[in-house]
Design brief:
Distance between the termini: 73 Å
Protein name: SulP family inorganic anion transporter
Pfam families: Sulfate_transp
Membrane topology: Multi-pass membrane protein
Order of helices and strands: HHHEHHHHHHHHHHHEHHHHHHEEHEEHE
Subcellular location: Membrane
Number of helices: 22
Keywords: Membrane, Transmembrane, Transmembrane helix
Shape: elongated
Largest sheet: 5 strands, mixed
Length: 498
């Protein structure tokens, strides 16, 4: 099998093959709990997460773009998928994902992938922080085997009642113990000696939680599983008919933008982790689109490039794309031959994995330095995150983008008014020389008018506008009105050099 994959990929080096084989096993072990956990948190059958992971390996993994990053279902889209399934039903999910995949293919063909690098990093960080907050709030309910409310604010508002109810429930406390233990293992795992860390942290945490559940047999919810083929439900004609709904089309666009941005930002991060070939952003966007199109036709979850799996792949010594293809092979073999193994995993353990993953999406350590050095960027980040919690993913990201554009417009519309000092022997009737520099836009109009209206009305004015790089219509009209008012005093008219 490995020789066949290596031949398909055009690489025959035995050293590369051994390194990629080992790395594929590591990525597979990391991917299993994440695929299942993301599916459960998204409100869909666990097998659909595995289907997306398999497609991410066998389809996206074979295509050019980024050689070492790994694709699959991501925690960053969990909230949006949950809302889409709740609003439109599981059948429409395939249509949404297929539509997003086709849009990604079109954007890649039009060479728009590189433009995603122009998205404000503050908006992306705010998006991930908002996703992380809503994800954590939702998974706190799963930690005690309770059903989470639909809206982000409702999730936070219900937490006090959840805590009070859980303290009086034995099964809830048992589930909480398993979930909290899972989070503790994930937090402490990097701190134990390297020789003892034979397994990736997510796999070790879920394995220990499952072992505890098997030995102690507490009354907690387990992952419900069925055959892989039974879980695959391609969208039907009625589902495609819902594309006429404006809300569903908005969800398709949201999936497209968020999945594309997350994948391409992940590619940039993975490129910094290795010295191999750099990512071709347009080809990577095509690869992601092809994967999502296949996932949509299978009725599975949307995929993105996942930094957790990608970092594990690079850290395990992967050299070519063979490692990510093989990881898809192992997922397929596991899902076909050992599906019952998933049925012993406590839901609270997977919730613990996602709580930990959600916490990593919130840039707590970067927020204070960002506030000190780039306060406007920090405001955009926090506002985007808050908007996602209050509204939803799509509207929150739009609000963040609008704030980023407004901030950029404000930053680039600097204007400076210089009034030349009067010479010592100049008569009182000598003209006042004023020079305006920068960009005159409506955002800086109050500052410009304050400076001009402070000039003496009984003396002629020489206004030099040659230092302006840009002047919009609002500022031009305001300057004409000010000139007319000044000339009404009867002194020499304002002379303008433009």
């Amino acid at each position: 099998m490995t020789r066949t994959v290596a031949k398909l990929l055009g690489r025959r080096g035995s050293g590369d093959l051994r390194a990629d084989f080992t790395a594929s096993l590591v990525v597979f072990l990391v991917a299993v709990p994440l695929c299942v956990g993301v599916a459960v948190a998204s409100g869909v059958p666990a097998e659909l997460g595995l289907v997306t992971g398999i497609v991410g390996g066998l389809v996206t993994g074979l295509l050019p773009g980024s050689s070492l990053q790994v694709s699959g279902p991501a925690a960053g889209l969990t909230v949006l998928v949950y809302e889409a399934v709740r609003a439109y039903g599981l059948g429409a999910l395939g249509v949404i994902v297929l539509g997003a995949g086709l849009l990604q293919l079109a954007m890649g063909a039009l060479r728009l992938g590189r433009w995603f690098r122009a998205i404000s990093i503050a908006v992306v960080q705010g998006m991930l922080a908002g996703i992380g907050l809503v994800l954590i709030a939702g998974q706190l309910y799963a930690l005690v085997d309770a059903e989470a409310p639909a809206g982000g604010l409702d999730k936070f508002a219900g937490l006090p009642g959840l805590a009070a109810g859980s303290l009086a429930s034995g099964p809830a406390l048992a589930a909480l113990g398993i979930g909290a233990g899972t989070v503790a293992v994930l937090v402490l795992w990097p701190r134990i000696p390297a020789a003892a860390r034979l397994l990736p942290a997510p796999l070790a945490a879920v394995a220990l939680a499952t072992l505890a559940a098997v030995v102690l047999d507490p009354p907690v919810a387990r992952v419900e599983v069925r055959g892989l083929l039974d879980a695959v439900q391609p969208p039907g004609g009625a589902d495609f008919g819902r594309l006429a709904e404006v809300g569903l089309l908005g969800t398709v666009i949201a999936f497209t933008l968020i999945a594309s941005a997350e994948s391409l930002f992940s590619a940039a991060a993975v490129d910094r982790l290795h010295d191999g070939p750099r990512t071709d952003y347009d080809k990577e966007l095509v690869a992601q689109g092809a994967g999502n199109a296949v996932c949509g036709m299978l009725g599975a979850l949307p995929m993105t490039a996942v930094i957790v799996r990608s970092a594990a792949n690079v850290g395990a010594g992967a050299r070519t794309k063979a490692s990510r293809v093989l990881h898809g092979v192992w997922l397929l073999v596991f899902a076909v031959l050992f599906p019952a193994a998933l049925g012993v995993i406590p839901v609270a353990a997977l919730a613990g994995v996602l709580v930990h993953a959600g916490g990593k999406l919130i840039p707590v350590g970067e927020l204070v330095p960002l506030w000190r050095e780039h306060r406007g960027e920090a405001v955009v980040l926090m506002a985007t995150a808050l908007a996602i919690v209050v509204t939803n993913m799509f509207e929150g990201v739009l609000i963040g983008l609008l704030l980023a554009v407004a901030k950029t417009a404000w930053d680039t519309s600097h204007i400076h008014v210089e009034v030349a000092p009067a010479e010592a022997d100049a008569p009182e009737s000598a003209p006042v020389r004023v020079r305006v520099l920068g960009n005159a836009t409506f955002l800086r109009l109050p500052k410009l008018l304050d400076a001009l209206e402070a000039l003496p009305r009984d003396r002629p004015i020489e206004l030099d506008l040659t230092g302006l790089r840009h002047m919009d219509h609002a500022c031009g009209a305001a300057l004409r009105n000010w000139t007319d008012r000044h000339n009404e005093t009867g002194v020499e008219p304002v002379r303008v050099a433009a």
